[in-house]
Amino acid sequence: MTKIGIITGSVREGRVNLQVAEWVKELADKLNIDDAEFEIVDIKDYELPLFNEAMPPAMANKQYTSEDINRWSQKVDSLDGFIFITPEYNKSTSTVLKSQIDYLGPEFGNKPAGIVGYGSTLGVAATQSLRQILANFNVATVGPFGAFSLFTDFENMSTFKPAEVHTATIEAVVTTTANWAKAFKTIR
């Protein structure tokens, strides 16, 4: 079974991130892709302190000393691919998502990722920022990416109500990520 984690990118109170992740998962499940299983991985369940180390423990050949970091490491390691749901804050991805990624290293490597962004400018800058971050960990990001507007895809900027026009793009993100994840198993 190919396991794809739909990773949330926000932990703040009143976040809409989880709504987007749930919608993407529902759509992914409806696609019924052979040998692909999707699950939401809420970073709030693995909330770690802000990364403030000289380098990630795995890269320094140290064991993870925190049970929370161990759980996060094991979860990411168990996945074959990712779909990141990222808000756009100040033309970048969220600090908390960047920090969660920074804690690890090899667990992300040689796996594909799709990205779904949202914000006042469709989350495009956050998507580009996240692509650069992931490239450092040898994560291949798929070509299509999702882009939702806080003004048109969210009611009162708080309730996710995506326009139908986005469905085909998100289906492409999901399908491409799942197909790449299957293929990437051969190099890990």
UniProtKB/TrEMBL annotation:
SUPFAM superfamilies: Flavoproteins. InterPro entries: Flavoprotein-like_sf (IPR029039), FMN_Rdtase-like_dom (IPR005025), NAD(P)H-dep_reductase (IPR050712). Pfam families: FMN_red. GO terms for molecular function: FMN binding; oxidoreductase activity. Keywords: Flavoprotein, FMN. GO terms for cellular component: cytosol. It comes from the Bacteria. Residues 2-146 form the NADPH-dependent FMN reductase-like domain. Belongs to the azoreductase type 2 family. Homotetramer. This is FMN-dependent NADPH-azoreductase.
